[in-house]
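Before relying on records like the one below, remember that each one covers exactly one chain. Contacts with other chains, cofactors or solvent are not represented anywhere in the record.
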Amino acid sequence: MFETTEIAAREFDRLMQDGDHDAAIVHIDQALKLYPNDEWLFFRRCKHQEIAGSTQDAEATWRQYVEKFPDSVSGYRELGRWLADQQRFDEAESLLERTTARFPDDAWAGTAYARVAEITEKWAIAEARFQALAARFPEHHFAHEGWLRSLLGQKKTNDAENLAQACRTEFPAVRFFSQIWADIPMLRFNRYASAQRWEQLWESAPEWVDAADIGSQRYIETLCYYDAQKLCEAALQKAPDNGPLLTRLIDTKLLNRDFSGLEVLLKSWPDNDEQKISALFSALDIARSYEELTRLYTQHLQPLEIPEAALSGAAENRLRHQGPIEASLIDTLTSFDMAEPLWQALLRLRSDTGLDLPQGRVVLPPKTESASASAFERRVGKVFRQFNAWVGDRTLRQYQADLFTSGGISRFGTFLHDYALKGSMAFGHSSTAYAFCKSDDIVWAMTSGHGSGNSIDALYFTATRLLVVTNEAYLGFFESNLSFFDQVSITDIQGSTADAPILLIGHNNYAHFMWNELPGLLLLKTLNPIPTLKQALLYEPYGPQEWLFGTALKERPAHTTFSPELYFYASAIVVSAEAKAEIIRLSELNSSSLEPVPQASLRLWISLRLMYRHAVNQLDYLLALAQEVNDRGIDCDLMLDGLSLPWDIDIGDRYPGTDKLRQNGDDVSRLALSLIEKLNARNLSHIKVYDYTASDLCTATVAAGYANAYICNQGTQQHKIGWIHDRPGLIHTNKMFSMTAPSGEWVQTQCDGRSEAVVMPEYLIADCDSGNERQDLPAFRDYAFADPVEAAKWSVDMLIHLSNLAT
């Protein structure tokens, strides 16, 4: 019946693969009658009983295997594995321990023995077993996999990361190690760093399309839509038929308002008219002008040649679930020579332009375009989405580009389309509100300030005193300023006509300038301004800059007073590569001499701070840090950073309270001198100190470029190096903040670069009573190092780890 055992084995394997277990057992029993002493046929019978038989039958068969082939390691090894699978761990442990002693040269027996400790989560024992196994069988990658899992089980993240990185090189074909390496930043709550690693994996192995898919999804989760789009576009060049990547690319292009090549992408989608129409309607919904809507239809919808019935049905279904659309948009759409059934469906769902206003305060849900949102939420939410859309990669808001290029704000397709823009009001620290008026109603569209990229985050309906905000966190801020808007009556602005826009330039905090303004200003230089544009230069932290956007104003704009002029900033939420280069150029142009410069193998930038948000025992920590570095024999230049004053600190009255700032800077410099004296007394041969605490902002920025790592408090001083120079670093902050936001993700997503920032874990931080008047605010709270020596040891370990990753 069976000419060879190989033929019998192949037939059995085929039957098992087809799921015909009954035929398979008959077949293997017949084969064993012919070849009763063939070990691998008997092995297959044991596997059959394990899969298709009872527990008792499986155990009996494996024990028969051991008895029948007593000199074969396979029976002992497989019986031990089976016992562990049945959670009979003591029996498995005992059997496999004896097996590894008897068969020391069998890597798989050692693997099964180590796996028992892993399954029972005896991580330290598992680590020791797998590590010894990897040393004995260095080419057995399963030993390294178990070693890596045991490290992760003990939360030894750094050791796991180092091992994963080494194994990626040693076993390039085993993707397990690359997957772990790419996902380890998730254990530090840093999805952005993980996205970058998945992108690196795809770049090194373009055939690994799933790596690009995972990376793009992680970018989207961190709102880095341009990064996601670029990755999808690059990956699709290698795998043009990949459906998930194609879908993600279309989604990100719509999020980025990038309609180029949309019809080509939609045509390459699987034949699903409803899906294509849904994507096109999403595009039509975000069109910001009649011209753009026309272009979208003629260039992207018509070429799809979708049947009229499908187009009409999809349109009606979409509008039924997403609510009525604006009458102005319907009127515009019906002017096209399009499929009649579509427009009949649209016209049946045409709505009144009035809003059914709720009362009091409304906090909008995160996704106002979803079917679960109310009609009011969808229609108001569209205003926020349209005004706040990005031009470029998080570098300029759409309403700001409108003001710069046309002198107004496009309201096409929103409920504000027939409201007139009358003027604006500056309020808060750097917020602006825009007044839209119709008959006896004023709607104020308010920005939340620099930190959010001056996004419009509130609408205030003065007639009913209804306040709508995009986030509950903003509610208190906007409510505290409503009295200024209540004082403006409809008669005050009805006869007003919006005047020329005024671009406000500069922020008194240099971090906000580099992060929230400079990228937008650089993008504005590529656009054509309206001839009547004016500009008001408020601050120049990095030196004189001639923006030449429009007529320069010598006086600052009025505050908390309605003006027919339209104030606006160029706003961003990312330090672009262009902004980094500009900061470095300006700093080098306006800095003082830095000779000599640091040259040690570890050039460590250290922030000293005495204002709010500082460690009260920072001196003890830094002494312990220097001692730890010295004891490990690491040559280190400690580069001390303090309160860096901006270039324009002495120009007019730009900066109130300069005496207080200078006093704080002097106090930090005295703290630095005290640290240096104590370090000198210890005679640490591997430590050299460079004191930049008295340097101005430009000089300190240039000096930071010589560092190759940093340790900074959370906030502005970290941004001085972390957002300008691509260096790895550590951030320490108060316990309240490190518990709720234990990640460097936010810091990293705000700048173009690949170096990861790691937040010191909260167990190393303690609360303190410093007399800080802002102690109840997480972002300003002072703190202490719970054990400065332990914190120092952790810091050096992490710095070495990050430095190894960077090389």
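The chain has a mean pLDDT of 88.
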